[in-house]
Design a protein that fits this description.
Length: about 475
């Protein structure tokens, strides 16, 4: 095991089932590697079908006592969990950078961002009101109550190993629902570490369980189980569609946070400085590996050359390196497959007439590091226009009119985030309303906040996370009609 840590005690590699650390019934393990160095960090337990069954049974057993606590009691435990995460932010950030590669400061930011969802839902659960309904019959009284949906499951990706779990487990556990989490194979350590802190905070055994191992074994057990009443998934659209279909057999509630293909539109009247820094934030955070990453940058003809010049200067300044090095803004890509995808998007674009202005190649550091890249003369027939690149490549498309820019931005089956830059107030309204996305950033590339609803339209997903709406995925509304009152 790598001895970099200040907090080895948060580094777990066994399954967290029913409050215990267990090696798994088949005693198999899989390696977790540091994408910066290729070094194996540790070998993590690989769950079998039997382990998943044990976890589901433990969650069912934990449900009555946990959902039976008052909202205030659950809120206090969640608050403690939040406090422990904040106290351990440095160690958790190290674990995150080690397994995922993002710069340490960015990892710290993710831990605090994730923790905020736990704090938010610890508060929100105290306000899960029902309603009284004016009656239609004088001898009846009508009301609704909101109840926990039951046992839930979460399947999460590697690009935000902590925050994507906190965004789901925070509201589920606050609502009274046990949750079984299956983190991505590349990044299970952050999940296990926050699972450990949940236990320490007093979350009952069996209420937050973390099972690591093959998706092909764990996925079907979770989706087929009638005991699991809701599945919250963040990941690719392809896998999301499969899970939706698998969940249909037991009619589970599903929340799907899927892939994006975010447009950035820079209008002629934009403030160049704001547009450049917003585009850098949106495009290059996490080395371009976020679902809300700018994937296509549409620039109006009148501002095109000035914008390209300013953006290329900013892109060329981005510092690439190991996430533990100081002053690094971009870490490695998660694996070689990701590097090959980026290369294939660039070579496809170049073969169809695009020009590489900055970068374009694997970084001289080696491994999975890639140069921050800017290409111009991108066109809608290129792969980069229709597929998520998930890497540090900014392709610039040119357009003439607002209608044309919007049409190009909306010509995708995806609809997660969209950004635009303008100083025209009327245009801010018009374009915000017409962009076919769930989240709009106007004159900013950073939109995430636990108090705001996050989610996609079209093939980018169903449901919302965060805000007062994010807990709905884990609740059922019950209507009660009381007769013979008179
Ligand atoms: P992915 O391949 O879909 O994997 C996501 C999770 O699903 C992982 O835990 C993976 O497990 C699991 N999985 C894969 N196949 C499965 C199956 N057949 N049954 C059950 N589980 C299965 O996505 P990724 O490459 O990790 O993440 C990148 C994608 O996530 C991008 O498309 C990105 O846009 C999207 N994303 C969306 C949001 C959002 O909020 N909308 C946020 C972040 C990322 P293994 O790791 O074990 O294969």
């Amino acid at each position: 095991m790598v001895a970099r840590f200040t907090a080895q005690e948060l580094l777990h590699s066994d399954l967290l089932i029913n409050g215990e650390w267990v090696g798994g019934s088949q005693a198999q393990r899989f390696p977790v590697t540091n994408p910066s160095t290729g070094e194996v960090i540790t070998q993590v337990a690989s769950a079998s079908q039997a382990d998943v069954h044990t976890a589901i049974a433990a969650a069912q057993a934990a449900l009555p006592a946990w959902s039976g606590l008052t909202a205030v009691e659950r809120s206090r435990i969640l608050r403690k969990w939040f406090d422990l995460i904040v106290e351990n932010v440095d160690s958790l950030a190290e674990i995150l950078t080690l397994e995922q590669g993002k710069p340490l400061e960015e990892a710290r930011g993710e831990i605090l961002y994730g923790a905020n969802f736990i704090e938010w839902f610890a508060e929100e659960v105290k306000r899960l009101y029902g309603e009284t309904i004016p009656t239609n019959v004088s001898s009846r009284r009508l009301l609704t109550i909101r109840q926990p949906i039951g046992v839930t499951a979460a399947i999460t990706p590697w690009n935000f190993p902590m925050a994507m779990i906190a965004r789901k487990a925070g509201p589920a556990i606050a609502a009274g629902c046990p949750m079984i989490v299956k983190p991505a194979a590349e990044t299970p350590l952050s999940a296990l570490a926050i699972g450990r802190l949940a236990l320490e905070a007093g979350v009952h055994p069996g209420v937050l369980q973390v099972i690591t191992g093959p998706a092909s074994v764990i996925g079907p057990e979770l989706t087929a189980s009638p005991a699991i009443r809701a599945l919250s998934f963040t990941g690719s659209t392809e896998v999301g569609k499969k899970l939706m279909s698998d969940c249909a057999h037991t009619v589970k509630k599903v929340a799907m946070e899927l892939g994006g293909n975010a447009p950035v539109i820079v209008f002629d009247d934009a403030d160049i400085e704001i547009a450049v820094s917003g585009t850098i934030d949106s495009k290059f955070r996490n080395s371009g590996q976020t679902c809300v990453c700018a994937n296509r940058i549409f620039v109006q003809a009148g501002i095109h050359d000035r914008f390209v010049e300013a953006l290329s200067t900013a892109v060329a300044k981005l510092n690439v390196g190991d996430g533990f090095s100081r002053d690094v803004q971009q870490g490695p890509l998660i694996n070689l497959e990701a590097v090959e995808k980026v290369e294939s998007h660039i070579s496809d674009a170049v073969s169809r007439g695009a020009k590489v202005v900055v970068g374009g190649n694997r970084h001289s550091i080696g491994g999975t590091f890639f140069e921050p890249t800017l290409i111009t003369s991108a066109t809608m027939d290129m792969t980069i226009a229709s597929e998520e690149t998930f890497g540090p490549v900014a392709p610039i498309f040119i357009f003439e009119t607002e209608e044309e820019g919007l049409e190009m931005a909306n010509s995708t089956p995806f609809g997660l985030a969209g950004y635009f830059f303008t100083q025209d107030l009327a245009r801010m309204w018009r374009v915000s309303e017409k962009l076919e996305v769930g989240v709009v950033g106007v004159n900013t590339g950073l939109i995430s906040y636990e108090g705001a609803p996050f989610g996609g339209v079209k093939e980018s997903g169903v449901g919302r996370e965060g805000s007062l709406h994010g807990i709905e995925e884990f609740l059922e509304m019950k209507y009660i009609c009381i007769g013979a009152v008179n």
